Amino acid sequence: MTIHLPMAPVDLEFQVTRNDSPMPDAEREAILADPPFGSVFTDHMVDICWSEKGGWHRPRVQPYGPIPMDPAAAVLHYGQEIFEGLKAYRHPDGSIWSFRPDQNALRLQRSAKRMALPELPVDYFLQSLKELIAVDGAWVPSDPEMSLYLRPYMYAKEAFLGVRAAKKVAYYLIAAPAGPYFSRGVKPVSIWLSTDYSRAGKGGTGKAKTGGNYAASLVAQQEAAEHGCAQVLFLDSVEGKYIEELGGMNIVFVHKDGTLVTPASDTILEGITRDSILQLAEDDGHKVERRAVTLQEWRDGVESGDIVEAFACGTAAVVTPIGQLKAKDFTIGSEDQPPGELTVSLRQRLTDIQQGRADDPYGWMMRLDA
Ligand code: PLP
Ligand code: COI
What residue owns the CA closest to ligand 1's atom 5? Predict the structure, then answer.
């Protein structure tokens, strides 16, 4: 599959400053053997400045470290910020790849539009990944259960307390080695139904990957943890009837006849993992429905035996079976049921492509170290 890039800009010349005290090899290898999710960072970071007058300029690779920030920077006051999440995988031959990074670049542009931030050209985004891997490639683990999580983000840095789109913005890319977001393997998780809180509303920012959506989810996520659940499930904010998504991942249901159903709404994030999984399933002959799904449909479907599996999917979660949904006054499923058959096989199909164990007929992988 050819990737069509909108108007390719000229390559940026990154000014590279090497970290003169990188983490010693032995220490790094010890972390890579069993990395936590998102709390240890590589030796370098990338940044590119934007200003209304100068456009994108001063691309740099520099040692990882604190960012100078004016206390009046608009992001600290009005939350004008967006981010992405994708992974770098080491293939069995040692080469380093990422999965559909053009889709993350395009989603960052869509988020930028919604949050009145400048759109970073797709080429600059892809180049930033390659620049970071050029200096921090050793941080990509070889264990197929592990990867290097890449976190591109952009924020309003202009020092200005008026409420309007900032005229000075920064794009950054940092990276953190990552093990499984939940537990190792495909152990089903319990999720908590939030009925007191919504994540997003009609005309709001639910579709954008912006910090505020995650901030809005935290109190509900705390409630989930208090009930022994790993994630929170949000319903629509208007009727409290339709299933939307989890705090940090999409949700998919599997019906007895092999049909996959996933909520479609303007208020949820368009997951790249979900899109890929559904494509794999469709090409295997499964019917796929992207439509409104009510909570009642899930309850009835499990009771009648029509819905046989449910899973969460996202970059961090990959594909994770949902064992049960706990709510204030009911529970669906049970924590210790085995993972669904299709859930497991789709997870395997996807990770085989991502980790270079299977062919990539869709042209989804992009090499980062060449
Ligand atoms: N929904 C939310 C709220 C997310 O944070 C994520 C993760 O990025 C997803 C869905 C899944 O998106 P993707 O598969 O592109 O990682
Ligand atoms: C991701 O999957 O990349 C996310 O941003 C979600 C978050 C739970 C880490």
Answer: 248
